[in-house]
Amino acid sequence: MPLKKVGELVIPSSLDHLSEVDHFAERMVKKLALPKEILDDVAISATEAVNNAILHGNKGNAGKKVTIRFYLCAQYLRLVVRDEGSGFAPESVPDPRQQQNLLKTSGRGLLIMRYLMDRVSFQRRRNGMSIIMDKFCPECHTVQSGGG
Ligand SMILES: Nc1ncnc2c1ncn2[C@@H]1O[C@H](COP(=O)(O)OP(=O)(O)OP(=O)(O)O)[C@@H](O)[C@H]1O
Ligand SMILES: [Mg+2]
Q1: pTM for this predicted structure
Q2: Quick one: pLDDT at residue 36?
Q3: Cα–Cα dist 99/75, whole Å
Q4: Residue 81 neighbours by CB under 8 Å, 6+ apart
Q5: Which of 90, 105, 121, 134 has a CA positioned 20 to 30 A from the CA of residue 82?
Q6: 1-36 pLDDT per residue, tens
Q7: From ligand 1's centre to the CA of 107, what distance in Å?
């Protein structure tokens, strides 16, 4: 079964919109009748990614947008968060688990997303950066065939 877009939310770059993102993730999981166990993981990851997109990607420029999209196929739910920034090199981000970083109060978002989601990748384009996160979900198959 091919990957199908099932939902999209576009917000301006302001942290005031973070709760909207949380609600959107919740609505998507409910609407698709996906197992409740994945809801927290997906909602937290969406919030972390949008936080990064606003603060680091779009640098708080309210004129720039953040796009959150959900896709579904038989094996997984995909969450894509896209900003309009110039991107970054994920492999150069310091590992918060290293001794010299343990006492830092930030720098854990990417680690949390990698921990909560099953597959995380990045796509850097001229007009923005996307983080692509998949949550494997055995019941996605049922949702797809059940939903027609
Ligand atoms: N969308 C993005 N655009 C540009 N840089 C990014 C983006 N997402 C992450 N980064 C870079 O990766 C670093 C690590 O992100 P991460 O979310 O792990 O930590 P943080 O945002 O600095 O702190 P925390 O999420 O713990 O509050 C950021 O400090 C930033 O340099
Ligand atoms: Mg962060």
Answers
A1: 0.95
A2: 87
A3: 37
A4: 46, 49, 50, 52, 53, 66, 67, 68, 130, 131, 133
A5: 105
A6: 799 999 999 999 999 999 999 999 999 999 999 988
A7: 6
Q: Is the CB of residue 130 below 6 angstroms from any atom belonging to ligand 1?
A: no
Residue 81: CB atoms within 10 Å: 26
Ligand closest to 54 (CA) is: 1
Residue nearest to atom 14 of ligand 1 (CA): 107
Cα 57 to middle of ligand 1, angstroms: 9
Query: Ligand 1 mean position to 2 CA, how many Å?
Result: 31
Alpha carbon distance 118, 140 (integer Å): 14
Q: Which CATH number fits domain 4-147: 3.30.300.130, 3.40.47.10, 3.30.565.10, 3.20.20.80?
A: 3.30.565.10
